[in-house]
Amino acid sequence: MRIGVIGGGAWGTALAQVAARGGQPVTLWARESEVVASINDAHENAVFLKGVALSDSIRATGRLDDLAGHDALLVVAPAQHVRSVLMATPVGATPLVLCAKGIEAGTRMLVGEVARAAAPGAPIAVLSGPTFAHEVAAGQPTAVTLACEDADLRTRLADRLASPAFRPYASGDVVGAEIGGAVKNVLAIACGVVEGAGLGLNARAALIARGFAEMTRFGLAKGARSETLAGLSGLGDLVLTCSSTNSRNFSLGVGLGQGRAAAELLADRRTVAEGAHTAPVLREAAAEAGVDMPVVAAVCDLLEGADVRAIVERLLARPLRAEV
Ligand SMILES: NC(=O)C1=CN([C@@H]2O[C@H](COP(=O)(O)OP(=O)(O)OC[C@H]3O[C@@H](n4cnc5c(N)ncnc54)[C@H](O)[C@@H]3O)[C@@H](O)[C@H]2O)C=CC1
Ligand SMILES: O=C(CO)COP(=O)(O)O
């Protein structure tokens, strides 16, 4: 199965490395010419994944047309750019493995819905889970959810990408896998705020648990299965991203918790903190679905410049209620 990768950020590069194990050829499309040059000339992505020696069998290109004729395409552009990139890619009936985590602003569509609209002939799979790109690229043990409604395609993709250190767990719940990844980024910002504001480890654990309750309410309302939300792509990724400054979302939250403005924290960065884009559209989607998501609403307010103490007081003043 010849693999192409759309997106030369940290995660696209790490996944290209996964797909290239054993010397299998992989084509990676990157938007930045310096990324293409760095990968082809020095076998390193010095812009987005510095310090990792990449396989010689990864060939980078700046032309989306070079992705024609592959057997599967891993879609690893940031969620807000998936539509425009897929519209410009010769996808046809090539299976798409969606690896971005987010919800499209304006349309409130999950990435899977965006992909179906932009590439109507392509079968869809979702790869998601607790996966810091640096660790995956370094070959450290990692497990992911690989969700696809077509069991045969799911098995072929899992067999192609699996190695002892990279274990895909099969699922038929595409929506569930997507929702976990999209929502956890927003919750990771909230946990970062707790860290930045010095509110303590009890508060962070409470936020992870109550945030997971929000993820579950929203996911069930959108047709996800609770087992998926409690699995690698939901709870697993939530725990990872809510506990480390290796997470861009958590780090953004730390800055907000220290009283810095979102605009200042997001200015000039080349890497993506998906939660900042997902939060406002998730708040809209939750309202549309009639789902209460107070932590998500708090993150939106903080991104819009609300005072941290006032937001914490508001959350703590909510009426006492049953846990379930
Ligand atoms: N970095 C990680 O550890 C992981 C990232 N992800 C997800 O993968 C997706 C991509 O993230 P990363 O690879 O980390 O990106 P990154 O933060 O390393 O790099 C930014 C990426 O955004 C792209 N970009 C910027 N403007 C663009 C535009 N107008 N059109 C198309 N692309 C544009 C850049 O070319 C670059 O590939 C995100 O949805 C992220 O949540 C998922 C799992 C792990
Ligand atoms: O999705 C990720 C880990 O699974 C990466 O998290 P950040 O985007 O917050 O760095």
Can you characterise this structure?
It is an enzyme of class 1 (oxidoreductase). It catalyses: sn-glycerol 3-phosphate + NADP(+) = dihydroxyacetone phosphate + NADPH + H(+); sn-glycerol 3-phosphate + NAD(+) = dihydroxyacetone phosphate + NADH + H(+). This protein has 324 residues and is of the alpha/beta class. The protein has two domains: 170 residues, NAD(P)-binding Rossmann-like Domain (Rossmann fold), CATH 3.40.50.720; 142 residues, N-(1-d-carboxylethyl)-l-norvaline Dehydrogenase, domain 2 (Orthogonal Bundle). Helices cover 49% and strands 11% of the residues. It has an eight-stranded mixed β-sheet, sandwiched between helices. Strand 7, helix 6 and strand 8 form a beta-alpha-beta unit. The model has no long low-confidence stretch (mean pLDDT 97). 1,3-dihydroxyacetonephosphate binds next to helix 7, helix 10 and helix 11.
Secondary structure layout:
Layout: E1 3-6, H1 10-19, E2 26-29, H2 33-42, E3 58-61, E4 72-75, H3 82-87, E5 96-98, H4 111-118, E6 124-128, H5 133-137, E7 142-148, H6 151-161, E8 166-171, H7 174-196, H8 201-221, H9 226-229, H10 232-241, H11 248-257, H12 262-266, H13 274-289, H14 294-303, H15 308-316
EC number: 1.1.1.94
Family: Belongs to the NAD-dependent glycerol-3-phosphate dehydrogenase family.
Domain Glycerol-3-phosphate dehydrogenase NAD-dependent C-terminal: 173-310
